[in-house]
């Protein structure tokens, strides 16, 4: 055994996980509303929400009750059988968004993978067998499976994983996207606010131009609302505010308040392309995930809840502008430029605040949507101490 082998063996003995997350140091064992706690009982004001996931805050009683009740009734039966909560959630999501049918999965990546497959399959089923190109935006992030990664043009995420899925095009400039959508395009996938790309909203005029090109060429428009959806930006879906009407939308993150659940919603004409056996997953639509998602959707879809997100989002933006620069985003999905994001995150943590870095010089604020004005004041007071 070489010395370096002994080194990594030692490391894996103490923490037997692969190193793709870079061995975090802080261990969190309990959550309550806006706060997370380590094993010594130290509390951290959480402006990460598990990366834009725990929208109703940690251990929300309605979600916990729904999970517990469902766990005592039926945990899993598979998609070989119907389950009433699966239908109920699909009905609720479709009536809130105007789509016609849902497909369930477990993560955002899986939702996008399914959406890309659905788009190609719909073109194929409608007789457009040559419409296979998938267009995406520079700065976008859609996930880590081979398909989702192929429409995520970030060189460091591709390193060592090529060749990826053929016939995917991401123009080097965002303004070049409409021209890349042509007669051979199956779909264009967009994020309205590019979260992992630094929390940058895409220009609404460009979004409408992309939609127009899709309509003109017969390409389908997929909006990835994995991060922006379920109230995060102050409307149930972000596409409502952007004034575009996608053919397919993908959801995950905030949908289950921490229980893994993803969904693809599509218009009837497109949704019909998934015929028996064409796509599937064992766990998608699991009853516990459905129960959690229904509890979340019932709360988030209330008009006063969404108004709260808009109000606190505007307040957070205004307050961050007092202490930082280039604050961008929508609702409670905001980013701010700092000199060194990793250093800022570490210093925030020592002040008892959790935020995340996106890229080298951007810090992201995606708190639970229940954040109050007092929580924002507390955040700003603590961040103001950072030098
Ligand atoms: C917009 C967007 N799409 C897809 C994903 C991938 O989701 P997941 O990590 O649940 O696979 C993410 C995750 O950050 C995301 O922000």
Question: Secondary-structure map with pairings?
Answer:
Elements: H1 3-14, E1 28-32, E2 35-38, E3 43-46, H2 49-52, H3 61-71, H4 84-97, E4 101-105, H5 108-125, E5 133-136, H6 146-150, H7 155-158, E6 168-169, H8 177-180, E7 185-190, E8 193-194, E9 200-201, H9 204-217, E10 220-224, H10 238-242, E11 248-251, E12 262-266, H11 268-271, H12 287-300, H13 303-323, E13 325-330, E14 333-337, H14 341-350, E15 353-354, E16 356-357, E17 362-365, H15 373-383
Parallel strand pairs: 3-15, 5-6, 5-7, 7-10, 10-11
Antiparallel strand pairs: 1-2, 2-3, 4-12, 8-9, 11-12, 13-14, 14-17, 16-17
Helix pairs in contact: 3-12, 4-12, 13-15
The chain binds pyridoxal-5'-phosphate (PLP).
What is the compact description of this entry?
The chain has helices spanning 3-14, 49-52, 61-71, 84-97, 108-125, 146-150, 155-158, 177-180, 204-217, 238-242, 268-271, 287-300, 303-323, 341-350, 373-383; strands spanning 28-32, 35-38, 43-46, 101-105, 133-136, 168-169, 185-190, 193-194, 200-201, 220-224, 248-251, 262-266, 325-330, 333-337, 353-354, 356-357, 362-365. The chain is α/β, with parallel strands linked by helices and 387 residues long. The strands form 4 sheets. The chain has a 7-stranded mixed sheet, with helices on both faces. The protein has a 4-stranded mixed sheet with strand order 1-2-3-15.
């Amino acid at each position: 055994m070489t010395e370096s082998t002994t080194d990594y063996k030692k490391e894996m003995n103490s923490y037997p996980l692969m190193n793709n997350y870079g061995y975090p140091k802080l261990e969190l064992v309990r959550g309550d509303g806006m706060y997370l706690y380590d094993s010594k009982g130290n509390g951290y004001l959480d402006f990460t929400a598990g990366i834009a996931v725990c929208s109703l805050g940690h251990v929300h009683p309605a979600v916990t009750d729904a999970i517990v009740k469902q766990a005592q009734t039926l945990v899993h039966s598979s998609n070989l059988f119907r389950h009433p909560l699966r239908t109920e959630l699909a009905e609720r999501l479709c009536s809130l968004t105007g789509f016609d049918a849902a497909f369930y999965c477990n993560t955002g990546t899986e939702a996008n993978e399914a959406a890309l497959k659905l788009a190609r399959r719909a073109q194929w089923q409608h007789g457009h067998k040559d419409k296979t190109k998938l267009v995406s935006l520079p700065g976008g992030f859609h996930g880590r499976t081979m398909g989702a990664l192929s429409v995520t043009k970030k060189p460091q995420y591709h390193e060592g994983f090529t060749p990826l899925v053929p016939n995917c095009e991401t123009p080097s400039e965002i303004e070049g996207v409409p021209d890349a959508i042509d007669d051979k395009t199956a779909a264009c996938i967009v994020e309205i606010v590019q979260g992992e790309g630094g929390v940058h909203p895409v220009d609404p005029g460009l979004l409408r131009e992309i939609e127009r090109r899709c309509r003109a060429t017969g390409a389908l428009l997929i909006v990835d609302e994995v991060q922006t959806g379920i109230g995060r930006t102050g409307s149930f879906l972000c596409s409502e505010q952007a004034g575009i009407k996608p053919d397919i939308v993908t959801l995950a993150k905030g949908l289950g308040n921490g229980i893994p659940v993803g969904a693809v919603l599509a218009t009837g004409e497109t949704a019909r392309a998934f015929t028996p056996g064409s796509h599937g997953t064992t766990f998608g639509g699991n009853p516990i995930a459905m129960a959690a998602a229904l509890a979340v959707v019932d709360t988030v879809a209330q008009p006063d809840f969404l108004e709260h997100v808009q109000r606190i989002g505007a307040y957070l933006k205004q307050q961050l502008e007092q202490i930082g620069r280039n604050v961008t985003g929508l609702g409670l999905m905001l980013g701010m430029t700092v000199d060194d994001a990793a250093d800022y995150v570490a210093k925030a943590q020592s002040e008892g605040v959790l935020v995340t870095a996106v890229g080298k010089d951007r810090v992201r604020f995606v708190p639970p949507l229940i954040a109050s004005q007092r929580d924002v004041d507390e955040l700003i007071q603590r961040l103001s101490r950072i030098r």
